[in-house]
Design goal:
- The chain contains three helices and five strands; from the N terminus they run ββββαβαα.
- The strands form two sheets. It has a three-stranded antiparallel beta sheet.
- The chain is α+β, with helices and mostly antiparallel strands.
- The protein has a single domain (about 1-80), classed as Outer Surface Protein A, domain 3, CATH 3.90.930.
- A hairpin with a 2-residue loop joins strand 2 (about 10-15) and strand 3.
- Helix 1 (about 35-40) crosses helix 3 (about 70-80) and helix 2 crosses helix 3.
- It is about 40% helix and about 30% strand.
Length: about 90
């Protein structure tokens, strides 16, 4: 399964965080570096396993390896719950 971000969600980089502005709801969401990486990989080409591998390689020195798959899944669930990903 792959995920695709909505193209109408604006992204704004602020230091080490990424802000997402949903023009449909006028809400702003702030992503930490891990969630921002997951967001960037929501392009329809990356599977969850590929996202986990990317996060592991980027943050392996600062994160518990066992938590990364759960973190990626929670981030995807959150992005989906708030309507930031395209529906199938």
């Amino acid at each position: 399964m792959t995920y695709v971000k909505r193209t109408d969600v604006r992204t704004i980089q602020v230091e080490d965080e990424l802000m997402l502005h949903d023009s449909a709801t006028q809400k702003v969401y702030v992503l930490n570096p891990t969630a921002a990486l997951v967001w960037s990989l929501c392009d329809g080409a990356h599977t969850i396993e590929q996202m986990v591998a990317a996060v592991e390689s980027q943050f392996s020195k600062t994160a518990e390896q066992a938590d990364i798959p759960q973190d990626v899944n929670q981030t995807l669930d959150w992005l989906n719950e708030y309507g930031l990903l395209k529906s199938d």
